[in-house]
Amino acid sequence: MHIPKPWTLPASDVTSETVFWNRRRFLKSAIAASVGVSTLGLSGCRSSDDSDLDSLAGTRSLKPLSRNPQFTTTELGDRTITPRRLTAEYNNFYEFGGNKSIWKAAQALPTDSWKVEVGGLVKNPQTYDLDDLKRKFPTEERIYRFRCVEAWSMVVPWAGFPMRLLLEDVDPLSRAKFVRFTSYYDSEVVPGPGWRPNSLPWPYTEGLTIEEMANDLAFFATGAYGETLPKQNGAPIRMVMPWKYGFKGAKSIVKIEFVEEQPATYWNSLIPNEYGFVANVNPDKPHPRWSQAQERLVSRGPSFSWETVPTLHYNGYGEFVAHLYG
Ligand SMILES: Nc1nc2c(c(=O)[nH]1)N[C@H]1C(S)=C(S)[C@@H](COP(=O)(O)O)O[C@H]1N2
Ligand SMILES: [Mo]
């Protein structure tokens, strides 16, 4: 049974996407879960209309890919999956530039023979290559809302694995309380955003508590839309924590360290009064320069006409994470 995914639809057909997803939501609720999983649970489609996009150059199919039924479109409420092209061509990746149009520059990221070094306060330090990761941690698809601190948002079908599996594999010592994640950096390769060239806290780093990393939602993405990640989205492996602002999700991870103290992080070091360490999505806590009560859904057309929707506490994932924060 072939069910087209929204990103297989023609680039101009926004209405069909909405109709399709409304229909799919109806199907999901009408069909017993087990049937829903077996008939709708496979993804990994590559559409004919976007397969020749330059912004998707070098991506490979992850088919067959099983969708985690816990994270499907039924919880998306007012949104639909963001067209694939927009996820691939509207980015934040300051290593490659200070605006949203960095996907071409990001093609300079060298992803061959990638390794992720995991160490610090663990019993079992590891250096994984991509084959190790794939073999040890089965790839699944999850559809998550994604909320940038700049008040725009998307919905992305990621592929990857829960962070908890990696955490269990390296077996942290009880002294380990935080985890520090480091992105790829080579000053010869990344031009940076063009401002404050000599005072940026490279490499990009981020951090979580151990409890946050062990949470069901915390995810390492190695793909999106059924294929490996495009470089501009943080290939070959990036963090996704859907209840936090997007900047917490470091891209192109090369190192993971288990530590005792809360680690310094990129945006928090640069502008501490605007970007905290916890950075959970919270409509009631405005950014010093703008409200966080609402967000604009990244969509086709000029940005001023993007649909505005209310922002949800924890980006709508409170049932999974609220207990972490008392
Ligand atoms: N290494 C690195 N990771 C990063 C960033 C960055 O500039 N460098 N930007 C962050 C921000 S602010 C956001 S919103 C997301 C954007 O991810 P996307 O371009 O795949 O949508 O990546 C996050 N991860
Ligand atoms: Mo962001």
Structural overview:
There is one protein chain. By secondary structure, the chain is of the alpha+beta class. It has one domain: Alpha-Beta Complex (Sulfite Oxidase, Chain A, domain 2). It is 18% helix and 21% strand. It has 8 helices and 14 strands. The protein has helices at residues 14-30, 33-40, 84-89, 130-136, 163-170, 210-214, 266-270, 318-321, and strands spanning 42-43, 65-67, 115-120, 126-129, 140-147, 152-162, 178-183, 205-209, 219-224, 227-228, 238-240, 253-259, 294-297, 308-310. The strands form 2 sheets. Strands 1, 2, 5, 6, 9, 10, 11, 13 and 14 form a 9-stranded mixed β-sheet that branches. A hairpin with a 2-residue loop joins strand 9 (219-224) and strand 10 (227-228). The termini are far apart. Mean pLDDT is 86; it is low at 1-48. The ligand Nc1nc2c(c(=O)[nH]1)N[C@H]1C(S)=C(S)[C@@H](COP(=O)(O)O)O[C@H]1N2 binds at residues 91-95, 148, 183, 204, 233-234, 246-247, 249-252.
Query: Which structural category fits the helices and strands?
Result: alpha+beta
Report strand %. Answer: 15-25%
Give the CATH superfamily.
Oxidoreductase, molybdopterin-binding domain
Number of strands: 14
Shape: globular
The proportion of residues forming helix, as a percent range, comes to 10-25%
Number of helices: 8
Q: Hetero groups bound?
A: ligand MTE, molybdenum atom
